[in-house]
Write a structure and sequence with these properties.
- The protein is an all-alpha fold.
- Helices cover 73% and strands 1% of the residues.
- The relative contact order is 0.10.
- It folds into two domains: 60 residues; 216 residues, MetI-like fold (Orthogonal Bundle).
């Protein structure tokens, strides 16, 4: 299905919004309400706002936002309990992995040679991230994971969670469609069990139950227990996402590939999975956004991501009244990241669809 030209799209939208006198009235009323709300917010957030970290001036003001709270506490919000004098390390580590993510989205690197470069680049980026964040070598002060927080923690939990859960989810999806009854039963049991409990329960189990069932000589860092919990939880949802893509591929394609002498794994790797994964790009991005948002739940197990770091900042009773500005600040960060990922997924879907048509 081809998309409409821009002019035709605008005409179609105009026809929908003004299809009848009633529709036109609703459109105009909603547009007026939106314009009024946008203007009021602009006045509050910009024209009447105060940006200086002056609590008395903010408290004395009757109208307008007090961005002075963000000006005063932005480093605590972005980096949590990470030591103030070492926050440059957290900022640099986050910038490195985000740069690797942006490089991965560059189409010119989607070649065999580019894939090798990206693999090496991601390996270097992750090593640098953990070296900078943890320290203990190269003259860097050792900083335990219990002091990590803010944006770096949100970013690394999201990237590691989605990257590690994707291959596990693919294997589970293939196992669920297997002709071997035992393999299929185990995959179904795992997927339905994990999807039947909320993530917060999984995090509690990973944090407090894992140490009880593991041998006493195995000491797993709380950060890695949380990572394992997120990976295992997201793998179940990724499995169902991939299974939906696999079901969209006609069975005749697998039969035709098998008739050519290809093995099961060759068929899956070269014929079925490439098409299935392209078909589930929107659902995959939805899982990515869900992981990005769900990292806020790690606060309940005493790790402070971006949302948890804001709560630390709001622990200052002097600034507690200006929580709205704080939540708008982190909301803008979440929205910016989510919007960029969703727009990229739409572009990627169009590009891959065009390639298949050609």
């Amino acid at each position: 299905m081809t998309s409409l030209p821009p002019a035709t799209t605008r005409t179609a939208w105009r026809a929908r919004l003004f299809a009848s006198p009633g529709a036109a009235l609703v459109t105009l009323v909603l547009a007026a309400l939106f314009a009024w709300a946008a203007w009021e917010f602009f006045v509050w957030a910009v024209l009447d706002a105060r940006t200086a970290p002056d609590y008395k001036a903010c408290k004395a003001a009757e109208h307008g936002a007090c961005w002075g709270f963000v000006t005063e506490k932005w480093r605590l919000i972005l980096f949590g309990r990470y030591p103030y004098e070492a926050q440059w390390r957290a900022a640099l580590a986050t910038a490195i992995v985000v740069a690797a993510l942006v490089a991965s989205a560059w189409p010119r690197l989607w070649t065999r040679r580019g894939a090798r470069l990206l693999g090496v680049g991601w390996g270097v980026a992750l090593v640098l991230f953990f070296v900078l964040m943890h320290g203990g070598i190269l003259g860097l002060e050792a900083i335990g994971t219990e002091r990590w927080g803010g944006l770096p923690l949100t970013v690394i939990l999201t990237l590691v969670g989605i990257a590690a859960s994707s291959p596990i989810g693919i294997v589970l999806a293939l196992a669920r469609r297997s002709t071997m009854a035992l393999v299929r039963l185990l995959a179904v049991g795992y997927i339905e069990l994990v999807r039947g409990v909320p993530l917060i329960t999984v995090l509690f189990v990973a944090t407090f139950v894992f140490p009880l069932v593991l041998p006493s000589q195995w000491r797993l860092d709380p950060f890695w227990r949380i990572v394992i919990g997120i990976v295992l939880f997201q793998a179940a949802y990724m499995a169902e996402t991939v299974r939906g893509g696999l079901q969209a591929i006609p069975r005749a394609q697998q039969q035709a590939a098998t008739s050519l002498g290809l093995t099961y794994w060759q068929v899956q790797r070269t014929v079925i999975l490439p098409q299935a994964l392209v078909a589930v790009i929107p659902a995959f991005v939805n899982n990515l956004l869900t992981t990005f948002m769900d990292t806020s739940l790690v606060t309940v197990v005493s790790m402070y991501d971006l949302t948890g770091s804001l709560r630390l900042a709001l622990g200052d009773p002097q600034w507690r009244d200006f929580f709205i500005e704080g939540y708008l600040f982190i909301g803008a960060i979440y929205f910016g990241g989510s919007f960029a990922m969703s727009r990229y997924s739409l572009w990627l879907e169009r590009r891959l669809s065009a390639g298949r048509r050609h």
